[in-house]
Every structure is written in C-alpha cells, then in structure tokens.
C-alpha cells in the first residue's frame, strides 16, 4: 500500500491511494516559523514524525516536494520516494475547502488569515526597509511631474506671450512660472526687480492692456505650474538623500538621478546588481534594440546612462567607449551596494581616470576602413 504526503499552507496531509486522509500534522502553533522553514527548503521535524508513523502501516511513502530524496534519509525507512507534483496533491488543492472542513474546526481559518496577514505585513516592512519601493515610486513620480510641468509651462508661455513678449527670452521655466505666479502684471514685474539678475527686461512703453479677471486666472494657473516645480525640487532632494543612504557607490559613480532611474527601471537595486554590464549599458533603449533585431540597424550604444555627464558632454565618437566604461563601474557599484554594503571611494576615482584615458586616446574620430 502507498501513502502520499502533500505540503499545504495549513499542514502536512497524508492520503491513501483512494484519496482518503489517513494522517496529518497541522500548523496550529509556530505557523510562521514552519512556513518560513518550508520556503527555505528545510526538513521539518514534524514531517519526519509523520513519515515515521506512516511507515508502520504503508509499504511506500511518496512525498510531493522540491527537495531531493537524500534529504529524507531516515534509519530503517527505505521506501521513500519524492515527486515534484502528485495526483493526490492536485486533489487536495482542488478540494481545499472540503479537506479543511474534514480536518479541523473553523478556528484554523482564523489562524491562517492572521498568519498570512502577518507574513504579508512583514514582507511589506522588509521591502520598505530596503528603500527600493521608496526610490522606485519617487523617481516615477518625478518623471511624471517633469512631463506634466513641461507641457503646462508651454501652455503658460503661449498664454502670456501677447502680454509679456519680452519674457520669451527667459529660458528658465521654473523662474518664468514663479514670475507670473508672484508678480503677474507688467507693472509689478518691473517694480519688483525679480528679473534684475537675468538678461530680460520689460519695456515700460508697452501699452497692451489686460483685464484684472484675466490676470487672476493666469496667476492661478501659473501658481499651479510653479507648485509642480517646487514639488520636483523636493523630490530631487529626497532622491539625493535616499541614494546616498541606500546606494552610496552608485551615487558616486552614476549620480543620484541616474542611479534612481536605473533602480526603478529594473524594479530594485538587487535586480540591477544581477545584470551584466552589457545589459546595464542599454537599459532604456529597448525600442532601438528591437529595431536593430528587426531591421538590422546598428545596435544602440547606450540607453539611460547617456544621462551620465561624462557621456552626454563628450564627443560622439567616444560615447560608445565611455558608455562601456561607465556601465562596467555601475555594475560593480550596484553589486557592492546590494550584497556587501561596502562603500568604495576608489570606484569614482578609477572611473574618472578611465574616462580621461579614453578621451586622450581618441581626440579625433577614426575613419572606418571599407570592407572588401
């Protein structure tokens, strides 16, 4: 005769060949500890006791588990085999409520719910503790604010151009929205001196009039736009502090903003650390990669890391080499931050030296030789 052991979220269930429950061990005490041990593929003492009891009545014991058979070596019990899935395990999962009702009273449902809530809360606490969630959500919010503010400031400029045409020379969007939000009228802007440190000045002879009600609605709209820029600045300061705390090596090598975007794109620092440098180099250039695979165009040399100042501000013919150097150091920095928590100031020094070496070695673009 055969007995089948199935591991469930509420205990070990033993069934015979006719799918009848013949023995069990329920996790009524130390529920969380046992589930954590099972998740870590550890052998549970109570499971061994259940196997010992079944061995006295059955010729063969089949265990549904991902663990190897060698883990279940018990003296005087030889007829043990393991399978990843069994028909009996599928039966228990399909008839979960029915089996649970037969095994015990309704109190176990309350215990299970409390246990799962506690496990979920702990996982959330651990996730927030790693700060990955905070960084990911903050950088995503920052990107959305930047997109929204960029669209709204253009609308504000078009709105104000007939009344304040000289302000078109002011390229600082944040200052533009601040001027309109705080001063609004031409007279107030001229008298306040808010533009004294800029190259923009308003003519006192411009005689286009605008009603007070129109100025009020423009001011209200400008206030909304300016508040977006203030929120953007607050988020950037927060990201700067978080990256310094969570990933100091990444902060040195990539800078706060780029480091946060890479972490957000891979949904976590640990996921980023597991990637090779060749993948990190082209993160964010997925469309170009697919185009390369589909049409045979040249593959992209860089993705998000183009925002690194050493790449963005360099000559086009060395950007690919610089991208490889930066990606390589980002990989090392991410792994140190994720797995060793060890700060290494030499990473930044080595990267700067490598960047300088590449620029000196390639002062001019290289001519491509024609292929025969």
What does this structure look like?
By secondary structure, the chain is α/β, with parallel strands linked by helices. Helix content is 59%, strand content 7%. It contains 17 helices and five strands. The chain has a five-stranded mixed β-sheet, with helices on both faces. Strand 1 (2-7) and strand 2 form a beta hairpin. It is elongated and about 105 Å long. The mean pLDDT is 84.
- Contiguous low-pLDDT stretches (5 residues minimum) are none
Shape: elongated
- Class of secondary structure makeup: alpha/beta
Question: Biggest sheet: strands, sense, closure?
Answer: 5 strands, mixed
What's the helical proportion of residues? 55-70%
The beta-strand count equals 5
Strand neighbour order, sheet with most strands: 3-2-1-4-5
Q: If you average the pLDDT, what whole number results?
A: 84
Helix-strand topology string: EEEHHEEHHHHHHHHHHHHHHH
Binned strand content: 5-15%
What's the total helix number?
A: 17
Instruction: Give the radius of gyration.
Output: 32 Å
From the N-terminal CA to the C-terminal CA, the straight-line distance is 76 Å
